[in-house]
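Quick one: examine this chain and its backbone structure tokens and tell me how the chain folds. Here goes:
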Amino acid sequence: MINRVLIRIKVVQLLYSYLLIENQFMLESQPSAPTKEKRFAYSLYLDMLVLMVKIAEEIEKRGGYKPLEDTRFIKKILADEKMKNLLGKYRYEQFPLEGVVGEVAEQVKESGVYKTYIKNLDSDKGEDDQVWERLFNLVIMPNLQLNRVISGRENYTLRGVDRMKEIMHTTFTNFYSSRDNIDDAVKMLSMSMDKARELYFRLLILPVELVNLREMQIEDNRNKYVPSEEDLNPNMRFVENGLVEALRNDPDINDYVERHKLSWLPEEKVLLETLLKEIMNSDIYYDYINFQYTDYQTDCEFWRNVFKHIIFHSEDFLETLETQSVFWNDDLEIIGTFFLKTIKRFEEGGPDCHPVLAMYKDEEDAVFGKQLFTEVVKNKDVYRRYIHDSIKKDKWDADRLAFMDVVIAMTALAEIINFPKIPLAVSINEYIEIAKSYSTAKSGAFLNGILYSITNRLREEGKINK
């Protein structure tokens, strides 16, 4: 259901925002023209970071899991070259704060900050990012034994300790504003795929819920104080539609809907009433209920026409999709096509068929997006250099290229170089189409020329053979 066309689009969209605001997290540097006080503050700053790492190593839950060691802040500290060198040094030399590690770790473990963090570990409350600043301010720094050890360090001053706290505050601020976490970006990509899957099932249950709403209206009309003949004997063809019955009883749809608690009616009843009114006022509806007879194929064709000519063009429907998910308006064209394909599969297979499409065609498609995104991020400088070197300076100004064009070109190169099974023409054509849709009017021609030039160079360098 989620094909490579949609995956490519989602990767390009995510890369655009990720690379545009990318901001690498780094520890603070040694101050220029350091005084004794500044040297003391900076040395203490690095040792406090080491202390946090050791506290994270010390505290574990059942099964040996160390939750604080798994936080993004600790991972970022450990990835910094200064910290790697310092930890290497302390494998051979005594760590100045070693004597308080156990006591401070125990205090951290018993603190309300830590317990709240553990309680919210599986929720989405942002505790991972903030927990270390809270621990530093509320638990670690107030520790009396730690402060006694600090006061015995060479060049100790209270101002030096305050300066260390200022450096630490800057570090936390820079950490919060950093956007270099590729794991988080990949999770966002996965979530975007999951939302596309949800949209597919929401489309599949929409006819069912529209029919449910119409049944409620019919029942209300029958219970009027003075019902009309039409109220008492309505045309039931719409609510007895065979496709709707097949959708209502499909086990794959029911399983997904139950697990994800999907429904339109409770939250979007006004939208459904609007859509139902549009449908019932349409020629499509009039012709359908006035046919001399109907069959299962006619029932399927009716709903296919309703979606193609009414629902997919409804401004109210499109606005609702936009409010429910930032992904859905971009997804609708492709997911809508797969929805219509599924209706066709119901029609061809009969009412007892179970034609719901799998999320991915195969395992290669399932991992394609993550691999493609990662390759672009990992090799972005190389790809940018290829693009810069291939620009015809008399036609294009490298410094004034649309950033989206650069992102699309880098993604295309990542696919061409790292996915040898995908034919070259397929990759180039797909990204030209993305450029036409998501960038400028000239982007398709620009991308075609750039990729033609770069692929020739890649062949000459032996980096591709397709």
